[in-house]
Structure formats: structure tokens, C-alpha cells
Amino acid sequence: MLQQAGLAAGESPERLNITAPDVVEGIHRAYAQAGADIITANTFGASRRKLGEDPGPCIAAGIALAKRAGAAAGAYAALDVGPLGGMLEPFGDMAFAEAYGMFAEIMEAGAAAGADLVLIETMSDLLEAKAALLAAKEHTHLPVFVTMTFGEDGRTFLGTDPAAAAVTLTSLGADVIGLNCSLGPRQLRGALGEILRCTHLPVMIQPNAGLPRLVDGQTVYDVGPEEFALCAQAFLEDGAAILGGCCGTTPEHIRALRPLLAGRRPVQRHPDGVSRLCGWQGTAELTAASIATVGERLNPTGRKNMKDALYAKDYDYASGVALEQQEEGADFLVVNAGLPDIDEAEALPNLVLAIQKVSPLPLVIDCSDPAALEKALRVCRGRPILNSVHGNRESMDGMLPLAAKYGTGLVVLALDGDGISGDPAVRRDTALRVAGAAEQAGVRREDIYMDCLAMAASVSQDIVMAGPEAIRLVREAGYKTILGVSNVSHGLPGRDAVNCAYLAMCLAAGLNVSIINTASRNMMDTLDAAKVLLGADPGSQEYIRRHSGAEERPAETAGADLRSLIISGRKGEVPAAAEARLQEKPPLDIINGDIIPALDIVGERYEQGTLFLPQLMASAEAVKAAFAVVSRSLPQGAGNKGKILLATVKGDVHDIGKNIVKMLLSSYGYEVIDLGRDVGPEAVVEAALETGAPLVGLSSLMTTTAQNIAVTIKALRASGAACKVMVGGAVVTQEFADQIGADFYTKDAAQSAKAAAQVLGG
């Protein structure tokens, strides 16, 4: 709408709140007159990072225009908050605290300007959405709506699926959640269904009017108001509570939605009693009948290597251990940085970031220091379990507010100031008392996991069986249970046999979640068999799959060879493997025989949807570590496959996609010259002529800047630069690439590597 009113390609839309207020207000008024209940202020990109200055004036002006335009229709004015345009740690270099600070500045300005609600939208990173949501809740008293954007594969840019997004945003206290942008209405219905299944909150949906294409230099969308409304009718029937439109939707699209709402009330939604936990992808759904497994090895207690890694701040070591346990079949991962002479407030969040860089599994964050625990909870993608709280007042005062605020699952220990009782009924009563306090603090009963405590049989043989009996009593009281099983064998030889026997007894008593050493095949076999006997494995399907020989561990996980380490993204272990490989093969043979084939496998799996962007990036970093070792043995200039220029075009400050492409292409051995973001056509042409780079990559995230890709390609052709051009970005399609004369359309980083291979070889 702003482009049609004269907004130049690359011009900041938010600045028009000050320089052309009548234009902005007129557009708002058109939507209000069409029947919109909420007017989205023109503040989507009003952040310090994008504007390069205090966003307050743009935000204040934008809210004022939205309020004035909607006043006659009684419409609400929403502070619209989009992504910052950078990637958060551990996948990028923006710290959570930095992102949170910029969002807090936006929220305070919007609240001061009189916004009626906050709409956080078009988020592709679950952690960035979390930073914005926490900033809204901690700096305003406004209702907060949060929507994520999903691609054709049903996942966000970073691989988060709709269920994990719904679970996380619901637990963090959003008032409304949903999805917007990316695709047309027909393509978003499946994602809507997943979100509806995983939340009791009102759900909103704002599709695009189809995908954009260029016609006579203008961006057009193919889904008209009638088709848009027809799809919206299905959304209402599914249970959506708020309808709207994103890119390409005009006042006529909104006008077409109004009749659908006549005489209709929102579907009332309620929690379903299922405990849902998640990392950045995939959701564990636990009922009273569920049996799940937690890998115990990310805990320094009794583990010298883990302890040494924490002292050395070698968090990559933890990444490798996390992947091992994931491959062994863990459903969750314990995370613990508790050492007496370590800064846990520094170590624990770094440990969480390192683990989530490679593994999507939900975490059980084990910490008794509330300050350190909160720092870890803030940077955790997904919904973890907090471990733990016990009956002492200090523990409850420190832990229960955190569990409630961050919406975590909660481990309750059957322990108080009197210690651990040998009487199962006393353990039950202690746990119930703490659980009652947790529920009063706002933790849902279905998210509480009672730990009845395993005592060491070597020193407490007379009461060791109080554990299984307490589990039975707690289950009768209506709670789920969790247990650190390995404690029972402490101090004994042949620990595996004792652990297996005790695990079987506890499972028979009703244990839901067992914290065990997943590297023990005997323990995992005991769990598999128990699931069959207790009905937790319908049709024995999982047991048959694992034990009939049909499931073979992939060859790359069988040993710690260089190729397997790259594929699994174990950066910390790569240098030693590369050094060992140099004793066997020449460096170029390692690059062409080990490193590049490993990256090719990663790229293929990424395109197949069996591996996701975080793993792709972890593998690319592992390759960097390998090259750092191998390149020292290369002749000067060997292994360099040629130059590639990359740039985000003029007016666009979003460089996430470009940076990922840069990382991957560098990993393949190309010399990547990064011109940065908001790069004008003249600068691209000058660099292309000066460097002679055979390939130039151009990206754009926004429809308002996509035309600058066309302008840049035209300038390159006119200059006579002898280069091919590849294009990509959220709004770029194959059709658009063909129309503007690009040589390659690369929808993701893996395809950019294929384009580079065609142009430069490799």
C-alpha cells in the first residue's frame, strides 16, 4: 500500500510516519473503514538496529496515526514489532541481552505512545520471539499477540515447527499466538491446525495474499478477496479466533472477512491436561501413561571430562555429549554446570546455548542457584523442565516464581528440612506439600514431575525400596514422576545390573521419566521392554523397529572419524580428527575425500528435510575447524576455489540468510567477499569489476526492497561485469528470478553451494 502511494524501493516505511503522515493515516483509515478491529501501526521495522537511531519518535508518530485513523470505527491500535534483522546466539553474533534491550526500547516507546496492544509478528527464530515477548511483558501492561512465520516445509527458517512454537509461546504468557506471512492462505491451514492442537489460547492467522511476483515493475499478489475469505471460513471452522491479512492484502481483503464473523463467537479453548515440553523443534507430549528418558551425562558430578570442559569453558565438548545421547535415544537432556568454584551464572547459559546449537531435544535444567537458573531460562529455546524445588522455604521462594514466570515443567523433590524419609508415605506427603505450593504459584499440575529419590543401595539397603513404593503412592495422588536411577548403584561394582533391576521395579511402580546413562544398551533395552509390557509402545512397534535388526545406526555415527564429526557438527572434536587424518592422507585428499563429501551429505539431508538449519550451521562450523588444521599443510593458494561476492541489496538491513550462505560457501573453500547489508547497486558493480568475482549473490527479505535486486542486476549487466548472479531471500521466487534476469534462484544455503559449483567448479 505504501509503495502504491509512492514509497521508493529501499526507503524506510517507518520514517513516513513523520515525513508523510497523511499517506500513512489514509491507509490506516481505509482498513478501519473496511471493518478492521485492530489497526497495525506502521512500526514493524522501527528498531534502533534498522533505523540507526532512537526509534521512539517513529513509534510515537506511528501509534498516533493508527489511533486517530481507527477512532471513528472504535478500532484498537497495535504496536507492530518485527524481527531485528540479525541472528541471535548461538547461530549468530547478537546476544540475547542485546536483542532484549532493543525490544525493551520499542515496547516502552509504544506503551508511552498509547498503544492498545503489542503485536510481535513475522518471527522465524523462537529465541528472538521470546526476547520480544519477555520485553513486552516486563516493560508494558499491554496484551501481547505473537505470530511466527512458517515456510512451505511447515517450519520456520531455523527449523522450528508450529507445535514447538505454540508450546513455547503459550508457556511464556502470550495472550494470543498464531502465524502470519510467508505463504498464501491455503498453504497455512496445516500449520494452523498444529498450533490449535497445542495451545488453549486464542489463535490468530494472517496469511499473505499468495506469493509475490513482479509485473511491469510492480509487486502483485494472486489471491483476491473472495478466495481469501473462502479460506478464512475454513480457519474459523478449525477454531481460529482472530483473522487478518499480511503482505498483499488490501482493505478489500479485510472487507471480505467481516461477513464471516456475523453471529459467530470465538471457540472457547481449555488446557487438555497434556504436559508438552520442547526444544527448538519437536515436542514431547507426556500423559500419565507416558514413559520417557533423560540423558544424564551433561552433569559434571563424577565425570572428569565434563568437569574439565566446564573449567576450560570448552562448551563444544558438551555439544558432542548432547549429540551422543540424542543418537542413543534420549528424549530429554539434563544440563548441569554446578561446580563449587565456577561462575554458574556464566557457565549455565553458555552450556544451554552450546547444546541447543546442535540438538533440538528439550532440556532438564538442573540448578539450585536462582540467578544462574534465570539466565539459562532466558536464553533457552523451547520449553524446558526446571530441576528442582524441595520443601525448604528458601528453595520454594527461589524456584517457584521462576517456574511460573517462564512456564516450565517442574521437578519436585520428596525432600525437606528433615532430609529424605525412609517411609514412602512421608516422601509422598512431602512431595505433595511442595507440589501444592507450586500449583498455588501458577505451575499446572500436569507439568509437575515428582522425584521420589533413589538412595544408594550400598549405604541404604534397608530403605532402597522406599523409592518404588513412593512412586506408586505419588502416582495414585495424580502426579507424574521422574527419577535419577543411577544413584541406586553408587559405590557398587557392576553398576549396570543394579541400575537395570531398579529401573524395571520403578517403571512397574509407575515411573514416567527416568534419568539414566543412555550409553548403556542394557538400560535402554530394559526401557524398550518395559514400554511393551506397560502398554506405552502400542503394537510393540518401537520395540520391533529397534530390536528386529531393521534399525541400523548410520555409518557416520559408528566412529569418531572426520566425516562423521562434520556431519553431526561436533566442532570440538574435529581438530584432533583432522590431525589424525593428516597422518594418513595428503591435505587436498582430505578436503576432497572427507570434508566436501561430508558437507554434501549435510546439504542433501537439509534439502530432504531430515536435517535443519541449526545442524547445517553446526556442520559448517565444524568444517571451518577442519580447514584450520588442514590448511596449514596446504601449499599457498591451494584449496581456494575462487571468489564470490555477497550483498543484501539497498534498503534492506536483514542479513541472516546472506550470513548463512557466506558461512556455507566459505566452508566449501570459496573466498567469500561480503559487502554487507543495505548495499547500493553502484557498490556491487564496483566490487564485481575490481575483484573479477565470477559469481555475485544478492538477497532481500522484504517486498519493499526486492525490486532493488532487479536494479542491481541491471547495473551489473550494463557495466559489462563478467559474472553470474544468484538471488535469494524470503520474498524471492523462481518466477521473480526469471523475470529479473538472474542466473540462479537459490531458495536456501544448500542451493547456493550448488550454484557456486556450477560456476566455479567443485
User: How would you sum up the major sheet?
Assistant: 8 strands, parallel, barrel
Which quaternary structure do these chains form?
single chain
Number of continuous helical runs: 29
Strand content: 5-15%
Structural class given helices, strands, pairing? alpha/beta
Strands of the widest sheet, in order across it, are 12-13-14-15-16-17-18-19
Count of strand segments: 24
- What is the CA-atom radius of gyration, in angstroms? 27 Å
Give the uncertain stretches in residue-range form: 550-560
Q: For the residues shown, what is the average pLDDT? A: 92
- How helix-rich are the residues, as a percent range? 40-55%
Ends distance: 45 Å
Can you tell me the overall shape? globular
Structural topology:
Elements lengths: L15 H4 L1 H13 L4 E3 L7 H4 L4 H15 L5 E6 L14 H17 L4 E7 L2 H14 L4 E5 L13 H10 L4 E5 L8 H9 L5 E4 L6 E3 L2 E3 L4 H14 L3 E2 L7 H7 L17 E4 L4 E4 L5 E4 L8 H8 L3 H14 L3 E5 L7 H13 L6 E4 L3 H10 L5 E5 L3 H14 L2 E5 L10 H18 L6 E4 L14 H11 L3 E5 L10 H15 L3 E4 L4 H13 L7 H7 L14 H7 L5 H9 L4 H22 L4 H18 L12 E6 L7 H12 L3 E4 L6 H11 L3 E5 L3 H17 L4 E5 L5 H6 L4 E2 L3 H12 L2
Parallel strand pairs: 1-2, 2-3, 3-4, 4-5, 5-6, 6-9, 12-13, 12-19, 13-14, 14-15, 15-16, 16-17, 17-18, 18-19, 20-21, 20-22, 22-23, 23-24
Antiparallel strand pairs: 7-8, 10-11
